[in-house]
Amino acid sequence: MTYCVAITMDAGLVFCSDSRTNAGVDQVSTYSKMFHFKIADERELIILSAGNLATTQAVVSQVKRDIRDEALTSLKTLPDISEAASYLGEISRLEQEKHSSVGGPNAGASFEASFIIGGQIGSDKPRLAMVYPQGNHITTSKDTPYLQIGESKYGKPILDRILNRTTSLENASRCALVSMDSTMRSNLTVGPPIELAVYPTDSFATTRFRYDDDDDYLRDLKKAWDQYLIEAFDRLPPLQWSDAQSPGE
Amino acid sequence: MTYCVAITMDAGLVFCSDSRTNAGVDQVSTYSKMFHFKIADERELIILSAGNLATTQAVVSQVKRDIRDEALTSLKTLPDISEAASYLGEISRLEQEKHSSVGGPNAGASFEASFIIGGQIGSDKPRLAMVYPQGNHITTSKDTPYLQIGESKYGKPILDRILNRTTSLENASRCALVSMDSTMRSNLTVGPPIELAVYPTDSFATTRFRYDDDDDYLRDLKKAWDQYLIEAFDRLPPLQWSDAQSPGE
Prior knowledge:
2 copies of one chain form a homodimer.
Chain A: E1 3-9, E2 12-17, E3 20-22, E4 28-30, E5 34-39, E6 43-51, H1 53-68, H2 81-99, E7 113-121, E8 127-131, E9 137-139, E10 146-150, H3 156-162, H4 169-186, E11 194-200, E12 207-211, H5 216-235
Antiparallel strand pairs in A: 1-2, 1-10, 2-11, 3-4, 5-6, 6-7, 7-8, 8-9, 11-12
Helix pairs in contact in A: 1-2, 3-4, 4-5
């Protein structure tokens, strides 16, 4: 399993991903799911991946090959994030089809993968898109400033409560890390190292962080969050015992 | 969909359930999923239900009928929560089989239901059990003092962070309500009224609350929690920008 989240705000973009992959609980490995593409001085793109590892590796390799070989269509030439998402979706779809042809030895097997692609291209503002296994994609909206792939449910409530378009990059980064922490506690197949990338609007420079299992900052963050939550709990309005109803049924 | 959670602590038990049922998004109704059984002065039991509404209603009717008819085996006679859970599981399994017989017109259809049963019987300490659709059941442990049925993922992280055996009934109640609020925000098919039941150990008296959509207390609780979370966020240790890595691939 995987958990990746990307957030878009006026101030820029934040990306966060775990690094655990598994095929069954006894075949667990560590692979980065964050791929950073810096192209000239006017393109900064990040791809996050989830799903079948063979598919995501093949897709990312193809994307890199197209850049290296100066292909007509590549992350170097596509005019905006939406077309970059279509391009990524097409490669992903073709890669999946290759291995799951009807009637072949793998008929019925699933090699699905999802991606988030985001960044800034030229004078366009920073954008995010999520690419479905089927190759189509969606983007963020004013009301939903984030996209998730993989094990998304555990980490969603905190995003809904904290994020909006005016959130600072600092707060969005911490929110992504707390969302990741909630997911790791509840799903063993999501795990460190955690990668975080912060892209300030118009900077064309991404700052990346990598947190291992025993990272001091991550431990401090978890500990502080646990403590502040408990303090927040203690301050919540007390139950109104006068509202109690007489036992029925 | 449904979300129900039950918590066991040294101080007693807390139960919380939503009241929305749906068959598709355009067929939404309101039904209580919490059933309270007060039997003589030495038995206090609560059942929470999730899953197919026809199944859960049939099961609860049978449970009530067995009590009324003074059946040999009923919640009135069973010696402990574990046997009560087996009894409930058996009724549920038989009810499901009745309607999904192989080869019949409903072959392959699912009438699954899950239950949480908890309470105190005589001098035994208060206990909880969760009954699977297959009729078997599990109980809580020292490290996992709660059970959930239905849409459980969104509301789980807050339970993991707050609850343990020594949590007060007051805090567990608020934790259950916050967990419910997180779930309602993220899944439209979980909705009010919210029911809450609080059972203090050895009291043989359950206090029940019902919160409608526009309930003042629930609104205050949500608002306070949102505000305290944002305050807690602002206090979290700042990102260590010195940890940033040079952009790589």
